[in-house]
Amino acid sequence: MTQASTQEKPLNIINLYELADEVSKNMDKGAFGYIRGGAEDELVLENNRRSFNQKFILPRVMQNIETSDIDLSTQLFGIPLKTPIIQSPMAAQGLAHQDGELASAKGMAKAGSIFSLSTYSNKTIEEVAKVAGENPFFFQFYLNKNTEFNAFILNYAKQNGAKAIILTVDSTVAGYREDDVRNNFNYPGKFANLEAFEKYQRGKQQLTPSEVLVEAKQALVFSDIQYVKQLSGLPVIVKGIQSPVDAHHAIKAGADAIWVSNHGGRQLDSGPASFDMLPAIAKMVNKRVPIIFDSGVRRGSHVFKALASGADIVAVGRPILYGLHLGGAEGVNSVIEHLNKELRINMQLGGVKDIEQIQRTVLYTQTELETRFLQ
Amino acid sequence: MTQASTQEKPLNIINLYELADEVSKNMDKGAFGYIRGGAEDELVLENNRRSFNQKFILPRVMQNIETSDIDLSTQLFGIPLKTPIIQSPMAAQGLAHQDGELASAKGMAKAGSIFSLSTYSNKTIEEVAKVAGENPFFFQFYLNKNTEFNAFILNYAKQNGAKAIILTVDSTVAGYREDDVRNNFNYPGKFANLEAFEKYQRGKQQLTPSEVLVEAKQALVFSDIQYVKQLSGLPVIVKGIQSPVDAHHAIKAGADAIWVSNHGGRQLDSGPASFDMLPAIAKMVNKRVPIIFDSGVRRGSHVFKALASGADIVAVGRPILYGLHLGGAEGVNSVIEHLNKELRINMQLGGVKDIEQIQRTVLYTQTELETRFLQ
Amino acid sequence: MTQASTQEKPLNIINLYELADEVSKNMDKGAFGYIRGGAEDELVLENNRRSFNQKFILPRVMQNIETSDIDLSTQLFGIPLKTPIIQSPMAAQGLAHQDGELASAKGMAKAGSIFSLSTYSNKTIEEVAKVAGENPFFFQFYLNKNTEFNAFILNYAKQNGAKAIILTVDSTVAGYREDDVRNNFNYPGKFANLEAFEKYQRGKQQLTPSEVLVEAKQALVFSDIQYVKQLSGLPVIVKGIQSPVDAHHAIKAGADAIWVSNHGGRQLDSGPASFDMLPAIAKMVNKRVPIIFDSGVRRGSHVFKALASGADIVAVGRPILYGLHLGGAEGVNSVIEHLNKELRINMQLGGVKDIEQIQRTVLYTQTELETRFLQ
Amino acid sequence: MTQASTQEKPLNIINLYELADEVSKNMDKGAFGYIRGGAEDELVLENNRRSFNQKFILPRVMQNIETSDIDLSTQLFGIPLKTPIIQSPMAAQGLAHQDGELASAKGMAKAGSIFSLSTYSNKTIEEVAKVAGENPFFFQFYLNKNTEFNAFILNYAKQNGAKAIILTVDSTVAGYREDDVRNNFNYPGKFANLEAFEKYQRGKQQLTPSEVLVEAKQALVFSDIQYVKQLSGLPVIVKGIQSPVDAHHAIKAGADAIWVSNHGGRQLDSGPASFDMLPAIAKMVNKRVPIIFDSGVRRGSHVFKALASGADIVAVGRPILYGLHLGGAEGVNSVIEHLNKELRINMQLGGVKDIEQIQRTVLYTQTELETRFLQ
């Protein structure tokens, strides 16, 4: 991990696509391939981006909006947020920056939003909790066959102040990512929470971090949601939903929020764009629980469109790691600020001044433009 | 502004796309980026062009049309025009040519059509009025929070013979144009009308041009239309409409014409192509007031298609600045003449001989070609 | 015209697209630009090709077809043809080969099909008639304001054995072809038939070839069809139809055949693909008269698809000039033979053995494939 | 055939597309052109691939699937298979490897699946039978006008243990493959089964291998199916079906299975993608007989989608020859294993654990995603 960046500075961002180009020039090839890559032919990776361009925001005029009145604030589980944009959980952030999750957590705190800590982070929950301070963070969790591990880690998260558990359910096997095969990629760092578990077990029959990884549970069932809720005593967000039916079952099983995601195109490359599934899932969820959306968000307009299609909160992944690599905590904050800036312009020109008004905005497909108004 | 052109000559134009390529070779990079650029990913810029190609003019034969009988003349607000093609308002034309708006105004006069002068021009209304002479011109206006400025400038326009006010309503915040960020672009010239206001205020509490710019009104409301009508005593064209509903409200509020435009793709990059919205807006307007159309017009066929889709007048922006740069007033006239030439050929081959016949022509989408005739 | 080819040999043709590439390497740039080029953005040129790929021939098996039984023969106006593929009229074939129309006529005779002679040919009707011998040829005609010219030329055609008049109605003004403007292209040769007219007038008030050209009639009307029929006493094919309504009017006015064509994309660049209009025109014509089809035919499969979409005869233009340039009369024959070869393979694999069976074959769009069979 | 490979090793496969690139670098140009190539413009070759991307597998979660429980086994005609992926018949495998069909047969045996031997193989049925041992193989057959040949070869196959006859019906004439014309390609090896026939005839009126080839029957009829069944006494699979009607006629005529194929885009280039015809054919077949599918399968997801669209078995062609070239029998096995690996990941993420569950899975088009769930 000697290549990991030690940068710490705000970034002059033109747009988030160019940020990736910049990172690609000096990040370790294997690390960049792992972060950037998608599964197989990367059809979903491409489709996630394309899908946003298939829906139009109609420009509205004379809607009495002063730019200074535009308000991005919202809330999730009663937690006040300065922006509807939170961070998607991502493993091993030491790949991007020497301070890893500590810097990300600081950056998200500066942006007034939520940091999501991965089970497979390079820093412990405890370390992250310290730098997060008053700022809320969520803990992302992969269920394990080892119940002792489950109990330890969920308790560890709760004791250190995590506000919710993100239960990832779409990665019971890793997507077939060819860059990682080509680059013979392996995580170079240590998984700090697994080491914490190893230490905690001392004296008992011990499980090494590698053994914990191998024991990740594949045969997930909807009743696992209750199990996690009971062990953690925290709200459980079920992450990785693309099917409306699965969203329904997850809510019936106790999910406190649905996280619509196709893992940024890293899992099933034959699946649809995440944004294309959002309206149907939102219809099925029918406001029973909040919806968080991710996969492909690179523009303020994408945030707008996701909110207008049923999302309550929008999460961003890779660009935050790019910001982290280029500018540490400040870089992470710059990414969120840039998206906020684009979002505000889109709101002004789309004729809305707060998140609720975005959520009531109707988007149009090309076909709808040509037919709906002419009937 | 030393780089601005001093050329004065008619142009041999192959087509307007190549004109842009030619200009790109020797115009100052910042100036060219500002003129050419669109917002964000420039999706609308591209889509504006593409949209014209999705509608077909059916070739018609044996319609008894002598090319010499083809008549491009029309009128707007009773002003006779030699062509349905007028100029879109554009700021700071000194970027393209040392004579700026004076040369454009002369060029449009030579073409027998209307010049639209921007509030943020490099030449004053008074100067332009002098060169325009008998030829009609319109004045484009951004409403200001400073009511004294509004009163001054609208009176200044009227006194100098402007025939109508173009009230731009789609730019309460600037679109996010990345070339301008990359080039660190700033207007190099002075805003002549704002300086005229500064001079006019002498002795009172004074507003500098920069202060006027900052005070541009964002929270526009439909009743502002009446305010501008009363201050100016001139017809008010509401420019920047993409929503049929907004068109309706503007007419209810007193608009004398609707200018359908997405600002040439410079504002909301998530919006539709301007041409794709035209039929729905025309249906909503239902001939209550004239419709002016712009955004993406680069071919005589585009003019034809816009007229056949509900427009009464078609406006052109960037290509006129390119003509201005390469040939001054003569270059501006060459651009209009080239479009007229292409338009006449399209009319002959489409089987129509005047603007009214174009407006009654039915266009077809690919799907309609395959289904309408076969039912 | 010193660059014109004097080649005379059969060609080894891979496909007709590559033939164009080969010609482009050594034909005079202006001549190649004139022959290859389309109007404006060449959208129709591209669309003519694309349109064929939107319709599928369903492979059929076990249909009891011996390849040696496949029969391409057909007829037009009672004239027996060895192939359904005839030549489209094209002006000034001296551009492609020193023997110009004489070589083309010989090549088409060898192929057992019809040669179409342009009014603006480099060889006279008389010269062509001599080399054609027993083989039928048609004469293509542009109506002139000078009635003496009309009478002369139509009589000249009839006296020399032309079997039909092709009245071109889609070129009352030339399409805007940018290559010709760029290359400053002018016909280098003489128009032999116009010179014949000049000679014929000797002693009377004389019209030079250039004056005849200028006097081409633009204000065509449907009753002109009767005029041409009466002057020539020959069947009149109306060429350049893209509108079903125009096809109907032409038949009502006496047309003996309809030639569906968009002039190979050389005229109205905003129009549809010719192949896309064929089904609707065929439905309107309803077998009252034969339909000839051209524009974009480069493959045996295109011939198949045109015949299956309502055409009785399919015409080919540019590729014949390419064959003429590379191989003279033999080259022309090679082009037809190559198309015949591809057509036969398509027939065998499509499960049909003669032209009539092709005409009864149903083609499918992608959408129809996905829906028609599943209902 | 001196260039043919003698490699024997397992392959590190990234994906099957790259395998082709690797082969292209060192296989003889003519051989590679023959194996890789498609007909005419290779539209079907491209479309075969594209078609898979138009249907989506919806990711499913929490479906209680342990990866180790995923089961690829299935059966055909009661023959147990370790994978639903079998080999398509391909001629002259000596082009790819010195051991030709012997190595392929060994590789498929190792993969626990079926090898399909072509009539026009470089090794005899007898030789293949020896290396296949207990492992099942099918014999692919082109009907001949020479009934003695038919009787000989079908008996030869049966005596040597072939489990079924694959009657290819879509190649009564070879598709027009331009690479073969360009490369002046001819099969360099001998056709071992035709030589076996020559030897068998000794003493009678003899037919050389070339004469047998020339006498291949073109005028196939559906009753030929019974003829082959009676001569061979084996199940007959009719291969090369793209029309639902032809599938129906073949079953009525006694076909024991339908093999949906467009010959990998090598025959009628104007036809549809094979995958696009599968649902309609499956509907028509209505489970009366098993369906085998090929043409364009390069991903485990393609296998999944074909099975979910009505196929019972999926066949792969070219990639197996590429594996054969690069690694002999081991290379062939590596190709199947790689597809199995991708398929397993797709099953886990698509929420199914066996072939039957795949077959009950619903796929979605983009349009269905946008509409079906929202009604």
TrEMBL record, chains A, B, C, D:
Cofactor(s) demanded: FMN
Family indicated by similarity: Belongs to the FMN-dependent alpha-hydroxy acid dehydrogenase family.
PROSITE patterns for this protein: FMN_HYDROXY_ACID_DH_1, FMN_HYDROXY_ACID_DH_2
Record-linked PANTHER family: 2-HYDROXYACID OXIDASE 1, S -2-HYDROXY-ACID OXIDASE-RELATED
Name the record gives this protein: Alpha-hydroxy-acid oxidizing protein
Assigned keywords, A-Z: Flavoprotein, FMN, Oxidoreductase
Pfam families in alphabetical order: FMN_dh (PF01070)
FMN hydroxy acid dehydrogenase domain span: 8-368
InterPro entries for this protein: Aldolase_TIM, Alpha-hydoxy_acid_DH_FMN, FMN-dep_DH, FMN_HAD, FMN_hydac_DH_AS
Domain of life: Bacteria
